[in-house]
Design goal:
By secondary structure, the protein is an all-alpha fold. It contains five helices and no strands. It has one domain. The longest helix is centred in the C-terminal third of the chain and has 24 residues.
């Protein structure tokens, strides 16, 4: 699931910078970025927490998160590392969802990534 979240983040970033078109065969229709409203998030205060687009940071972070999650059963990673990463994704996700609400934007990709992160975190603590 973390890899899917990373792929969606990369898709968002790719559409934002014009590398790819919004219509991709691997992106479910409900996640397609068919409006400029979603892309406008990047240029808001909520779209660049560390100065670069969150979608770009999220692409790399979620790849590392997937590696950490896979590393636990292979005993390459201590269990607490992906758990802390999960807490981080939930906290940042709450802030970013708050931003979506304040901006009055229902971005399907953003919501999907945040839901995936929430599910991953819940599966870790169960």
């Amino acid at each position: 699931m973390a890899l899917a979240g990373g792929a969606f983040s990369f898709y968002f970033y790719g559409v934002y910078i014009g590398w790819i078109t919004y219509r991709q065969w691997w992106v479910p229709r409900f996640c397609e970025l068919d409006s400029d409203q979603c892309i406008s998030i990047v240029d808001s205060n909520y779209g660049r927490i560390v100065g670069i687009p969150n979608a770009l940071v999220g692409s790399f972070f979620l790849l590392c998160y997937a590696y950490a999650l896979l590393g636990v059963p292979l005993e390459l990673m201590e269990k607490s590392i992906p758990l802390y990463m999960g807490w981080f994704t939930v906290l940042v996700g709450v802030y970013l969802i708050y931003g979506l609400i304040r901006l009055k934007i229902a971005c399907p990709v953003c919501i999907t990534v945040h839901v995936l992160n929430g599910i991953i975190f819940l599966l870790q603590i169960i």
